[in-house]
């Protein structure tokens, strides 16, 4: 196990290097004038621009390896460059948005994963009954409509009509409290900071803003987890030891909870890692619908504007995260799977 | 198992029969598209004709069975020709990316060692960039257009299959019959094709079925982010993206523009539902443990 | 339990479908004004900013010497100067080349420093020295140094023969600074600008809404690391990289608001300046939020969380008529849209012109150099339908580059209208009839996501292909980056253009569109440039900007308008008007075509 973790960390630099080369070579397929579009994002701004001067100012016509070594030279010194699409240094752009996305992901993961598993188990237990069919149809709907459709509908119902869950991350009053000198930003997570500063209004307000995106994410991801849990649960239920347990007269509830569910969860855990990452990356659309300023929104913006230092920054940050998450998954795999645990 | 038998069992199962019927329906629509919605000129048949220049969507009326979307694009026409696009995206993207995945997964697992290490690290690199972001960058660079969308989806869509294939092959490689062939000195090609791929392909196939439907959705996410099919191209994803700014209705009626969402939404849903149903049934049939 | 859930969900759905968002009786958060817009801000440095998003923020914090009188874009009111210079009050010299401003006394910056004439001089000098490439500062150089001067590099080349200001030696820098300082002199509380020659729109260039005319606090600016006032610092201060610019994210002005927080692309928060010399604003906090999703903006307005939003014309009908919402339409905007015809298409490596020859499979390089082709295109566009359906009636047809209500705009001048017979006639005459026989194939390219442009291209395609089956037009949407590249290389046969006024004067339209050295002339190629010179367009433009005689100017601009139409230089499409969408409790809002976005200070929130 320890060896495995060490190996993981040893290959980390190679993967990060590979990612930078991949992204860089994609972007360098474009000519200098095309890449200048990073700096001019509105046709109206073209007027009066001396484009050749701008190109040489940003060094866009240098050979790609020079541009790459300039960039990597900065990275070695902890400088990921300037992100034109964010109007901030890349590191700052990522770290200022990271708490928002983390907060969203943290609060979303529990209802999404637990709800998905719960529904999946129910659906498997009621295999081929009406309940199963309904769940499957609903989950297909959840999976078949683009996320933005649900996002807008959630916004319409819970904000437009009911007025409960507004878009954005904070309302103006709560934001003013957070800006005030007495308020200490411990973590950047609004809910947590609100609790630590004993500002119940901030906690409440931050939470209100989280629900819309969470509900939207839940609709989309439930169907995914549900599907995996269901099929894995079905498979487990047909296994010999379950049949034996049933034959022995063990109560059905006990069979499902104690024997079947645990084993059925193994494949779920394997997909949980990529899923958390998917949640983080997949917030692109949810964040833009809800006007929620996070990493997803930034990634989309940087990609559209061909802001290469921005994309590289996000990609490297995601690689780090991916490796970290996979590590956690492997450990929990060992915890759940008795065969590995015993070794 | 015989293909004939698989088919019989697919038809016998109510759910997969339902799936098959829908797929068949879509196939018919795709085949007869030129008769259902005659194009103005055969060269740009995928260009959705515009009923006028009006921006606001207009409800179904004579001549425009499903109404017109934002920009007066004929929804019926877009749906009919979009069926062809859906199949094209599904088949090409899933086919090519699965093929890549199978090749890389098999080679890694079969040869192991440095080759395995090399391919798996490349897989890691490709998996490290969030899929949507990577696809966006590539389509932005290649330019708008369905071909470019497909290239991007294939480029960043093969890793799942590769990993699945690799784990399958690893399992089978140590089975006696494979080891026996190796001992008998059979050529690598023969072993790979005869024993390994034939025995590992089914999980990959099932996975491919499941991905067919989701490709249309991914393409629509790209349309939403502004890098999908060109404006006015017959594509379901684009048709539903046209609804973006009208979903919530207006002037007191939330349902004012329902047709802009419901029609393309239903088509995408049925398409992906039927592939899923067939995939599910397929799994039940092919999983030897269940027989 | 499941049944209950289903019932609940159904109820929520039914409720949401049939209920109309209720109107609020009271004013939401009376102490905060929230404006929800799209886009972001590029910088907060008034000398660097050249986009509406940035200027909107700068407008709230910094002030200029003079302002506009309400809705007018021609009449001024005093602001930081106590009088508007004119020849009558003697503050503009007889020959029209010296402008004097009397600086208001008792005005303080929000940090408590007093405004002095020295601050004013420093502000303009700092702008002229920083002069970033592609920035707005050319507007100061042209009047102060004369035509042909567009930046510091032109001055250094002229004075000490150095093309690049970054290469100046200290000694040369001294000379350059001396020349600059001669142009703006201070005498007590009087600041005088010495122009090279009369320049009629000079006051417009300095007036409210022009962020480059903002007055900075000299002491504060130097503390932040901006140009320190010495010649030695010119090299370091010239053409800064955006992120290293000391004023990139800091502001200190005399205006009604102070910057509290700027989170680029998300929100800008201002707090009231309680010592503002015209009296404090009506609310404590003003917020500009950036939300790109239209539906989200719409809901925020309907809920009353936004007091004012940006509502694009095409979606406005969704909120019009809702309780508590008021929409003002038909606000003139100094901007236009046209299709620039490339008279001299670059054929090398060009995939937009088919074969590149007159053989039915493509178009030749000089396709649009033929006047009849241009006229035929002009007749094959449905201006009326474009304005009625795409702009939903909120635009007027262009009559050349100059827009309403600027000098030279004449609402009775000749324009084109859709006339397929005339178009056919001109196509038959083009290339001595050859074009009609062989036909042509070309691409019309627009940048993806710009729907009006796509519709305009579709329209041309639909009408022109109707005229002759041998005519083929492919409409192609390309990424913004590709579009930018192609328009620079001159490979686009026709491209869309638009201009948003820097200052309200016809010169700001004729120069970029018609002059051989203008921005859009480049897109038409050398054939156009030579032609414009031959027929005297350049001379007319030069005369127009150096004449103070208003009647003569009008005559000149009318003539230029007429030439643009008679020769069908471009396809002149329209001048869109703007609208404003806000809650009824917002009082005091007024339109002004030059102002970048909102003016928080003028507004208040009062319940009905």
From TrEMBL, chain A:
Superkingdom of this protein's organism: Bacteria
Transmembrane segments: 9-30, 104-125, 137-162, 206-226, 264-286, 314-336
Keywords assigned by UniProt, alphabetized: Cell membrane, Membrane, Transmembrane, Transmembrane helix, Transport
Keyword field contains Membrane: yes
Leader peptide range in chain numbering: none
Keyword Kinase: no
Membrane topology per record: Multi-pass membrane protein
GO cellular component terms given for this protein: plasma membrane
Location of this chain's protein in the cell: Cell membrane
InterPro entries found in the cross-reference section: MetI-like, MetI-like_sf
GO term, biological process aspect, one: transmembrane transport
ABC transmembrane type-1 domain boundaries: 98-333
Family classification: Belongs to the binding-protein-dependent transport system permease family.
Name under which the protein is recorded: Peptide/nickel transport system permease protein
Source organism of this protein record: Halanaerobium saccharolyticum
UniProtKB/TrEMBL annotation, chain B:
Biological process annotations from GO: transmembrane transport
InterPro entries in the cross-refs: BP-dependent_transpt_permease, MetI-like, MetI-like_sf, OppC_N
CDD domains in the record: TM_PBP2
Membrane-crossing segments per the record: 15-37, 86-113, 125-143, 191-210, 257-278
Localisation per UniProt entry: Cell membrane
UniProt keyword annotations, A-Z: Cell membrane, Membrane, Transmembrane, Transmembrane helix, Transport
Top-rank taxon: Bacteria
Record's bilayer topology term: Multi-pass membrane protein
Domain ABC transmembrane type-1: 83-279
PROSITE patterns from the UniProt entry: ABC_TM1
Principal location class: membrane
Listed Gene3D superfamilies: MetI-like (1.10.3720.10)
Coiled coil: none
Annotated Gene Ontology cellular component terms: plasma membrane
Family: Belongs to the binding-protein-dependent transport system permease family.
Name of the featured protein: Peptide/nickel transport system permease protein
Upper lineage: Bacteria, Bacillati, Bacillota, Clostridia, Halanaerobiales
TrEMBL record, chain C:
CDD domains cross-referenced by the UniProt entry: PBP2_NikA_DppA_OppA_like_7
UniProt cross-references to InterPro entries, sorted A to Z: Peptide/Ni-bd, SBP_5, SBP_5_dom
Keyword Hydrolase: no
GO biological process, any: peptide transport
Endpoints of the signal sequence: 1-23
Domain of life according to the entry: Bacteria
PANTHER family: ABC TRANSPORTER, PERIPLASMIC OLIGO-PEPTIDE BINDING PROTEIN, PUTATIVE-RELATED, PERIPLASMIC BINDING COMPONENT OF ABC TRANSPORTER
Name of protein: Peptide/nickel transport system substrate-binding protein
Lineage of origin: Bacteria, Bacillati, Bacillota, Clostridia, Halanaerobiales
